[in-house]
Amino acid sequence: MHHRETSRREAHRTPAAVLAAVGGPAHGLDAVAWAAAEASARHAPLHLLHVIPSDPFGPDSVGPGDAGAYDAARLFVDKAAEHARRVAPHLSIATRITTGDPARTIALEADNADLVVLGREAICRQSHRWSRSLTVQVTARSPRPVAVVGFAGPPGNGRAAGRVIAVAPSCLAPNAAWAVLGTAFNAAHQRGVGITVLVDAPGTTRRSGTNVDDLLAAHLHAFADIDMQRQRLTGPRGSLLTQASQAAALVVLPLPETRVARWRSRSAIRRLLETVTATVTFVHAQGGPLLAHRSSPVGGTR
């Protein structure tokens, strides 16, 4: 009953925006298209943000009088908005160009969003260390869930092809577990696909005494139309996740709840992004009621 009452209350909440960080022409528009489709599915506005680096000691920084940089940024942001409108013609879109430290600025803007969307075109290219670092820094700093859009390509034929993958080990705190599973089940429901949950051994109990089976049973009760499969977390988790997520529609991963712990996890975040080619959404329990999506009887975001 409590979950259904929560659902009714959330149904009347005005969804916050989906924030897409727009890079330059070298970064492509895959992330913008993904963000537009996600915002449309959530009935939320889309905000496109481009940050021109202004670190006076940075090699790519510009000053207030560099009109050429602003003109180039405006052209690309307008192109990104046009691309988003082709994906979702009735979507409300706002654009903003500003200067500052890109990672810090995006993280601050994220406080007014439900989801931050980043591209990953530059993550694995050794010649773009700045862009790779930016993605990791924003993921570690953001107070909201962060989606890093995967490489576009033909559908795969693996076990996870087209499915949503959720990673829910027993070491997660209860709020983090709800956030991960709520996000994953909402995403699977939105896309009309199945979900594969990577868990520990059946019956494993979390630190709070909450059983993994109980958490999954609650979500299956709320999302009875979703085909759910379980897969054991055994052996090296990095290689297992890489294999399990091939051609997945989305991979939902937990992050530590505190910003300090997330910042210390930057190396782990980078390794995940370098090995998992599917779109990844990182979630954590910290972030307040915005993590409870309006359509989920059990909380979590899409």
CATH class term of the largest domain: Alpha Beta
Number of beta-strand segments: 10
Determine Rg (CA atoms, Å). 19 Å
Spatial order of the strands forming the largest sheet: 3-2-1-4-5-10-9-6-7-8
Provide key terms for this protein.
single chain, 302 residues, alpha/beta, Rossmann fold, 2 domains, globular, disordered N terminus, disordered C terminus, TAT_signal, UspA
Compile the SSE list and pairings:
Elements: H1 2-11, E1 17-21, H2 30-42, E2 46-53, H3 67-87, E3 93-100, H4 102-109, E4 113-118, H5 129-141, E5 146-148, E6 164-167, H6 174-191, E7 195-199, H7 212-222, E8 228-232, H8 237-244, E9 250-254, H9 259-264, H10 266-275, E10 280-283
Organism: Kribbella shirazensis
Protein name: Nucleotide-binding universal stress UspA family protein
Pfam families: Usp
Written description of the protein model:
- The protein is α/β, with parallel strands linked by helices and 302 residues long.
- The chain has two domains: 2-148, Rossmann fold (3-Layer(aba) Sandwich); 164-291, Rossmann fold (3-Layer(aba) Sandwich).
- It contains ten helices and ten strands.
- The protein has helices spanning 2-11, 30-42, 67-87, 102-109, 129-141, 174-191, 212-222, 237-244, 259-264, 266-275; strands at residues 17-21, 46-53, 93-100, 113-118, 146-148, 164-167, 195-199, 228-232, 250-254, 280-283.
- It has a ten-stranded mixed sheet, sandwiched between helices.
- Helix 2 packs across helix 3 (67-87), helix 4 packs parallel to helix 5 (129-141) and helix 5 packs across helix 10 (266-275).
- The longest helix has 21 residues, at 67-87.
